[in-house]
Amino acid sequence: MVKAANSRGAAPGTPPRTRILVVGGGYVGMYTALRLQRKLRAGEAEVTVVTPEPYMTYQPFLPEAAAGSISPRHVVVPLRRILPTCRIVIGEAQRIDHAKRTATVTTLATDEEGAGPVEIAYDELVLAPGSISRTLPVPGLADYGIGFKTVEEAIGLRNHVIEQMDIASSTRDPAIRDAALTFVFVGGGYAGVEALGELEDMARYAARYYHNVTPEDMKWVLVEASDRILPEVGPEMGVYTVRELRRRNIDVRLETRLESCENRVAVLSDGTRFPTRTVVWTAGVKPHPVLAASDLPRNEHGRLACTAFLTVEGVEHAWAAGDAAAVPDITAAEPGRTCAPNAQHAVRQARTLADNLVAALRGEVLTEYAHKYAGSVASLGLHQGVAFVYGRKLKGYPAWFMHRAYHLSRVPTFNRKMRVLAEWTLSGLFKREIVSLGSLEHPRAEFELAAGGGSGPTPPRPTPRPPQDSQG
Questions:
Q1: Plot region of 396 (φ>0 → left; ψ -120 to 50 → alpha; else → beta)
Q2: pTM across the whole model
Q3: Please, where are the H alpha helices in 233-291?
Q4: How many CB atoms lie within 10 A of CB 122?
Q5: Average pLDDT of each block of 10 consecutive residues along the chain (472 residues)?
Q6: Which end of the chain is more exposed for a tag (fewer CB within 10 A), N or C?
Q7: What are phi and psi of 391, to 5 degrees?
Q8: Helices 190-206 and 151-170 sit at what angle, rounded to 10 degrees?
């Protein structure tokens, strides 16, 4: 194992700078580092961010990116650009030894060097690795399932849906056509409902350009294990959402589970069988595995036990927030409740965490995190949505408009806000783009065929990416 160089940046006779390690480049990681960058004095501390990707993904925009309403590059925020004074390490934290104040990290160069992971030493730790997809041992899921947690998965799913329409349009086999035009989404939370709503809307629009595929030919199925969907918007809006989706001929199956998707056949717990080439898995998340590979205390759900000051309970010099942290909700009427692991809390927790970390370095008083949940908004496709905000219920166009306005205000950087707004404006003036760029996923296929003499068969397209561990 190699120890990474960690210059304390101190001239002779001056105190060394505090080394702050931020694990994770998602909402909490990026916003914490951004605020530290603004509030720390010159030479007071050095901030290192360890993240698997060189960008932060604004996940609420993934459904619109999948539907083609927003360009994929505008859904992500490049970390090196907005964190110029931080050290960015593209890698994965494998283990945290807080007793020794070290993190074991594999980087893109780890395999090339052949020297094993590196150890990064720190004085203050901010643990915000996010969450990963929570999968179940469903037969066939690893082979045929598609996740919806990263921008790559969202764009891959868009390409896949359009490709299935192309297959259905050209095949002479009714069974293949039926399977290609059947789309099964598992999970009735935000990710599943919004992805289904946006993609169904996009596919219905695209069908007008096919001579033999109509919206009525397509079968969209939403499978949810509980008795309602979108619990965050309340029971009444949840019932409205089910009614609205069914009005669009989307088959909503409540209190139903996916039992198997082997051999491209989705088998549900109610006995229904759907031959399908598309199974999208959005059935929840779980804590990142690095939490279990640390010596920090966790609760019964595997999240870090935290205080309202966003410190790790019973541990000094360790901080956490977001999906990885069980933060007490001091605004809740019921004692013992923790903050929901969502973006609304994560962004605000990051600000409080950074402020408290700076205050701790300067020996000042810390502030408890307190935010009363404002409500939720969800898009169901173009001009359709539901919202429950400050006790008020909205549906249809007003909810959809509020969804866009809220997330436009929350997406990081003025640059991204203007680009997203420009794309929305242009999409209102011109027709949608319905081109599949699936070849981007394997761009060397044609060259490899040419380099091989042109006589070999065309390389087969791989099956869609299964749900995988990724940063939240």
A1: left
A2: 0.84
A3: 234-247
A4: 22
A5: 49 70 93 95 93 92 88 90 94 95 92 84 94 87 90 91 94 95 93 92 93 95 92 84 92 94 94 95 88 93 93 95 91 83 86 96 94 80 83 86 88 89 86 68 73 54 45 40
A6: N
A7: 85, -5
A8: 40
